[in-house]
Amino acid sequence: MANIILFGPPGSGKGTQAxxxxxxYGLLHISTGDMFxxxxxxxxxxxxxxxxxxxxxxxxxxxxxxxxxxNKVRKxxxxxxxxxxxxxxTVPQAEALGVLSKEIDMDLDALIALRVEKEEIVKRxxxxxxxxxxxxxxxxxxxxxxxxVYTEETQPVFKYYNEKGKAYNVDGMGGxxxxxxxxxxxxxxx
Length: 190
Ligand code: AMP
Hints:
By secondary structure, this protein is α/β, with parallel strands linked by helices. The protein has one domain (4-117, 157-187): Rossmann fold (3-Layer(aba) Sandwich). Helix content is 59%, strand content 12%. It contains eight helices and five strands. Helix 6 packs across helix 7. Adenosine monophosphate (AMP) binds next to helix 2 and helix 3.
């Protein structure tokens, strides 16, 4: 049983790598970004609430995000383990995850942060925006806002887990397989 947070700025490869890790280790991949996009494309009440924040590159309020994540995890308690991609993104989200972990007796093994240079992030996201259909990937000023939000609101989450001795850094520069190899090496040491 492993429960892992895959952490890093937008465009660091979290989604791609989380999918590969989930497959290799039999974990359930939970991406809050994917969940919000699903709600948005189905025009649900939750999607309507999240839309304005997502389109401008802001975070959806904690209250909404935490309750969505809790429901998902509670529904899948049979999972061998979880790989969280895009959650927690604020310290209150990390604290809420701590409470949930106790409630369902789930140990959080590690937060693994992908490190990627800012110029590379902008390049990757603009490239992805050509085919992803994601509005937030198509406009450089929204991308820069997302990076700013990451630095200001999300980066403290690393410190939060680092103080518990659970945070790891992985170089996210380079090819997909190369980065995957580095991640697997960390996971296998847990
Ligand atoms: P992502 O696919 O992880 O880049 O997420 C896309 C967008 O969904 C983000 O820019 C936020 O607007 C929203 N989002 C995803 N995860 C979270 C989260 N944990 N907290 C708040 N907003 C989130």
